[in-house]
Automatic annotation (TrEMBL):
Gene3D superfamilies: 1.10.287.210, Bacterial Pleckstrin homology domain (2.30.29.50). Pfam families: bPH_1, YvbH_ext. Coiled coil: none annotated. It comes from Ureibacillus acetophenoni. InterPro entries: PHb, PHb_sf, YvbH_oligomer_dom. Residues 148-205 form the YvbH-like oligomerisation domain. Residues 10-132 form the Bacterial Pleckstrin homology domain. This is YvbH-like protein.
């Protein structure tokens, strides 16, 4: 008994396992998924203290203070507002008991140890997160180019003066409305909120 408590206190027993789809409803994170808005669970890792629930919209983290405490804090990281970066996977050595997946989401670092018996499943999650990171980086580049384009267009309009037949106020209003609409359309094009298509590609539930 003492050995078990010491192991829990030191975090030595906090190696995660992958939850099967038929058991999602037995997890805490399942209660906080926005099913009403079309959110779907694709992957859950459960440790003694935490749950890491990957949906098409977000990472839902049920954060435990320690393996000995029942207190939990719910943290939600929507992909639309929290970009994924620096995804890596540390595979198990000969005597290792676990594999480790690492990433940042919204600048918050995560490092999750998982029993190496789930190595194949973790590879699928790794591929999904890497692909999402690539899409996010491409979108960021497109948004930067978009802002450069609108800046160039505004400078051209300013140098050519206002449109003939329109007052300065009318021209300014037309340019402002066009710019707002154009930026919104481009932002919607290069800002993903739903990555279900990526998870579907690699994870077969």
């Amino acid at each position: 008994m003492f050995k078990k408590l010491a192991s829990d206190a030191l975090g030595l027993s906090d190696i995660g396992k992958v939850i099967e789809p038929q058991d999602y409803d037995k997890t805490e994170s399942d209660d906080y998924v926005l099913y009403e808005k079309g959110e779907k669970i694709y992957f859950i890792i459960k440790t003694k203290a935490d749950e890491y629930c990957f949906t098409n919209y977000a990472l839902v983290h049920v954060d435990g203070d320690s393996a000995l405490s029942k207190k939990r804090t719910l943290k939600r990281y929507d992909y639309k507002y929290h970009p994924i970066r620096y995804v890596s996977l540390e595979t198990a050595g000969t005597i290792d008991l676990d594999v480790e997946i690492k990433f940042e989401i919204g600048g918050i670092p995560f490092s999750i140890d998982i029993n190496k018996s789930y190595a194949d499943k973790i590879r699928d999650l790794y591929k999904s997160l890497v692909t999402i990171e690539q899409i996010m980086r491409d979108n960021e580049k497109h948004r930067s180019n978009m802002l450069d384009s609108i800046d160039s267009a505004q400078k051209t309009l300013s140098s050519n003066g206002f449109s003939q037949g329109q007052s300065p106020a009318e021209s300014y209003k037309a340019i402002t409305e066009f710019t707002h609409t154009w930026l919104k359309n481009m932002s919607d094009t290069y800002s993903n909120s739903d990555f279900g298509h990526v998870f579907d590609l690699f994870i077969k539930n």
